[in-house]
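SEQUENCE-TO-STRUCTURE ENTRY
===========================
What this section holds: a protein sequence and its matching fold, both as plain text.
Tokens: labelled as protein backbone structure tokens, with as many entries as the chain has residues.
Question of interest: how does this chain fold, as expressed in backbone structure tokens?
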Amino acid sequence: MGQKVMVSAITREEVREAILDATDHLLARYGYRKMTVDDIAQEAGIGKGTIYLHFASKEEVTLSHVDRIVERLKERLWAIARSDADVAIRLRLMLVARVLFRFDSVQQYTQSLNDLLAALRPKLLARRARYFEDEARVFAEVLNEGARRKVFNVDDALSTAFALIHATNSLLPYSLSTNELGERDEIKEKTEHIADLILTGLLRKQNAPAARRRR
């Protein structure tokens, strides 16, 4: 009996992932407004009714797709945070990753990004507080480590982490229109510049030259 329950649970998760994968493809192909639940079902190779077993609406499917992007980003941030790299290098990599990971996740449908934002912005904004709080906790762990090692001059790691989040939020795809988004290299350069300015402010003076040499 237990084995059957496990197989059933795995199957439900696989179906859910297939629905979100299909949504990703269709956002690139049609954009949010033109995409329908019928389209998602056909792309995923399942019946329309199956989608409603997992999601209440097209809106919920799309918001869950965004949730999945952020969950994968958090996994990436934790991987960097717990790596063996110098703590200052880890922090810089994390700042760049939080912007570029999102950019890479939606760049294939940047032409329909304005459409998506217009339709879902209120719901996305409501979710962003949770996204940013989760990310800030990852950054706070690295900041605390840096403070313990006397690499960073930080009094309140969580407050500082939120400041880092806010400093890079203006470069996120969900904060920019299609015209403002620009090319990946341009976004990367801007993010790295912000990261370097942040590190200059955080590093204790005796650590700044070493951090620059290791980049």
User: Anything to note?
Assistant: The CA atoms of residues 24 and 81 lie 28 Å apart. Confidence is low (pLDDT under 50) at residues 1-10, 209-215.
